[in-house]
Amino acid sequence: MIIDTHTHFYDPSRPQGVPWPDPDDNLLYRTALPGQYRALVKGRGVTGTVVVEASSWVEDNQWVLDLAAEDPFIVGLVGNLDPTSDTFSDHLRRFAANPLFSGIRVHGTETFMGSQTMVRRLALLAELDLELDLLMGVPDLPAAAYLAERIPGLRIVINHIAEVPIRGPDHDPVPAWIEGMQHAASHAHVYCKVSGLVEVTGQARAPTDVEFYRPTLDFLWNTFGENRLIYGSNWPVCERYADYATVQQIVDTYFTAKGPEASAKYFWKNSKSAYHWLER
Q1: Within 13 A of 34's CA, how many CA atoms are on the CB side?
Q2: Which residues contact 37 (CB under 8 A, 6 or more apart)?
């Protein structure tokens, strides 16, 4: 059983189009819907997905929820709502009424540091039993610990290992990332999505050997432990650097070696704890 906690679904052929991807993106500017994804992962053990909404249009959250109403393969949605907007709380309460709505993803985390207004608004996620995905780079990592300290009831998921560069087995992770991740991981309700690996290699076609990624994976394992690491493919974005089979195989090789229970936790059990996705 595998729950892929990071897919993007969209349809540029809609009358209103899409705000992302850009029409000039020859790889991503295409229809990316559950049917295409299911065909891609057939036989790979994937039984459901949590969609992460990349569109900034509020009503596109409802668009994905409408997709999910027709397709039980979608077990959750991480929505896209702007916490700097005065309408944030109203929109959040509206979408939270749907049990498939798992939380939201935000970026630009510098706006949260020192802002009681932002902390108060994001605390509503915890009140509604929702989670917070953080799309961040290494310099933004202090915001993860900052929010974890101020909203102790909020489940937080760092996306794409905070986009740290991975340069191979002879290169240790950068010190700022090590420090930031350790600080974030010291809070028991902070998770890390082990996704985006192939995107940060600096190579047009990412290496396929798990050994290239091992120093980074070992650090994450030693820092977050077996209970707070989560699988996500970042499909279809990952296809710019590697095919889906490669993306899955890298982490499958690593976590399978940790034993069947650790592998099950990584591929679905931990995501259930973080996202409270709906069993369908």
Answers
A1: 22
A2: 7, 9, 49, 235
Instruction: Locate 153 and state its tokens.
Output: 């009831």
Say if residue 117's pLDDT is above 80: yes
- Tens digit of pLDDT for each residue in 239-261? 999 999 999 999 999 999 999 99
Q: Encode pLDDT of 89-105 as tens digits.
A: 999 999 999 999 999 99
Maximum mean pLDDT: which of 4-8, 111-115, 166-170: 4-8
Q: Which residues of 1-19 are buried (b: 16+ CB within 10 A; e: fewer)?
A: ebbbbbbbbbeeeeeeebe
Q: Which residues of 144-169 are buried (b: 16+ CB within 10 A; e: fewer)?
A: bbbbbeebeebbbbbbbbbbbebbbe
Domains contained in the chain, CATH given: 2-275 (3.20.20.140)
